[in-house]
């Protein structure tokens, strides 16, 4: 009899964190993420709160716009994220910096 090793399946649902200073932008992005079948969606409008959520909630991916309204661009934001986590960050928008 041959033993088959199955990959372990995490009981934790896939967490998506959306970071944007605009609540309207968060809601628009959240709608798209939910329609795609990801139901554990977190959101933050403040950079420091977002970093705290990354550290405490351990999301599987972060989605952010390329222009952040709090005077921060997405590249600088990712540099801050990298100081605390290796979580993948998706930067989207109509034009990247």
Provide the spatial order of strands within the biggest beta sheet. Answer: 2-1-3-4
Biggest sheet details: 4 strands, parallel
Write the element-wise H/E pattern from the N-terminal end onward: EHEHEHE
**How far is the first residue's CA from the last residue's CA?**
57 Å
Instruction: Give the overall average pLDDT.
Output: 84
Number of helices: 3
Class based on secondary structure composition and strand pairing: alpha/beta
Question: Which segments are poorly predicted (pLDDT under 50) over 5 or more consecutive residues?
Answer: none
Strand residue content: 15-25%
- Return Rg in Å: 16 Å
Overall geometry comes to globular
Portion in helices: 25-40%
Report the strand count. 4
Description of the structure:
With 97 residues, this protein is of the alpha/beta class. Helix content is 34%, strand content 20%. The chain is built from three helices and four strands. The protein has helices spanning 23-35, 47-57, 74-82, and strands at residues 15-19, 40-44, 61-65, 89-92. It has a four-stranded parallel sheet with strand order 2-1-3-4, with helices on both faces. Helix 1 links the parallel strand 1 and strand 2 (40-44). The chain is globular and about 35 Å long. The N and C termini lie far apart (57 Å).
Topology:
Blueprint lengths: L14 E5 L3 H13 L4 E5 L2 H11 L3 E5 L8 H9 L6 E4 L5
Parallel strand pairs: 1-2, 1-3, 3-4
Feature tags:
97 residues, alpha/beta, 4-stranded parallel sheet, 3 helices, 4 strands, globular
């Amino acid at each position: 009899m041959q033993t088959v090793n199955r990959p372990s399946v995490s009981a934790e649902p896939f967490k998506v964190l959306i970071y944007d200073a605009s609540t309207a932008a968060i809601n628009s992005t959240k709608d798209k993420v939910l329609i795609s079948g990801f139901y554990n969606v977190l959101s933050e409008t403040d950079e420091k709160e977002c970093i705290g959520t990354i550290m405490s909630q351990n999301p599987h991916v972060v989605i952010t716009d390329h222009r952040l309204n709090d005077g921060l661009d997405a590249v600088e934001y990712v540099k801050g994220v990298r100081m605390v986590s290796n979580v993948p960050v998706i930067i989207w928008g109509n034009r990247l910096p």
